[in-house]
Amino acid sequence: MARKITAQDREEARGYLLEILKPGDTVYTICTHVASSGMLRVLDLVVPMIDDNGKPFIRRISWLGCKAAGFTWSERHEGIRMNGCGMDMGFHAVYCLGQALWPDGTPEPHGKRNGEPDSCGGYALKQSWL
Questions:
Q1: Is there a domain that residue 2 lies in?
Q2: 106 in a domain, yes or no?
Q3: Which of 60, 73, 74, 108 suits 67 as a labelling partner, its CA being 20 to 30 A distant?
Q4: What is the pLDDT along the chain (130 residues), one digit of tens a residue?
Q5: Residue 109: which region, alpha, beta or left (left: phi > 0; alpha: psi -120 to 50)?
Q6: Domain membership of residue 65 as a residue range
């Protein structure tokens, strides 16, 4: 069952994610389910953080990322539904999340792409599989 995400939900999630994610941060992806056809995956997005006492912890941002980027949520598998195959769906999810957070690009270049300073929002976050 898919939940309808409103524009207000999207903006609230975007604002909250902008408080915890900065350009250059790594978002880790976990594939929690693959359909038997291979044409659908369910992903979980997590980021490492440090609490007020200096202790590290893992924060799950899947639902916020789903709302901010406009993905479909899987109630059954509690993650982001990614349809299709033949590409790195974890990279795609994090790219779309970065693009949703910084649609006009980051205020300052966050790296280089093709030898030029890059401020594209889609490439602002790094992705790695767990």
A1: no
A2: yes
A3: 108
A4: 555 778 899 999 999 999 999 999 999 999 999 999 999 999 999 999 999 999 999 999 999 999 999 999 999 999 999 999 899 999 999 999 999 999 999 999 999 999 999 999 999 999 999 9
A5: beta
A6: 7-129
